[in-house]
Write a structure and sequence with these properties.
single chain; 70 residues; mainly alpha; 50% helix; 0% strand; Guanine nucleotide-binding protein subunit gamma; cell membrane
Length: 70
């Protein structure tokens, strides 16, 4: 697509993109990290990777037996 455009058209597209980027609201990384930490810690009590899966809800546990690697 860019091959079919003149230098002026390419520069105009770049200018439009830069105008969009300037008007984009930004937040500090530290604020985003704090929000992410709060979100993850809020979900921590229900996280099966941390807490484990109860035997009655585990579809892989039961009469099927296990797998032994030798």
């Amino acid at each position: 697509m860019a091959r079919d455009m003149s230098d002026k058209e390419i520069l105009k597209m770049e200018l439009e993109q830069l105008k969009k980027e300037v008007s984009t609201a930004r937040t500090p990384v530290s604020a985003n990290c704090a929000d992410t930490i709060t979100f993850v810690e809020g979900l921590l009590p229900n996280d099966p990777l941390i807490k484990g899966v109860p035997d009655d809800k585990n579809p892989y546990k039961g009469d099927k037996g296990g797998c032994i690697i030798t």
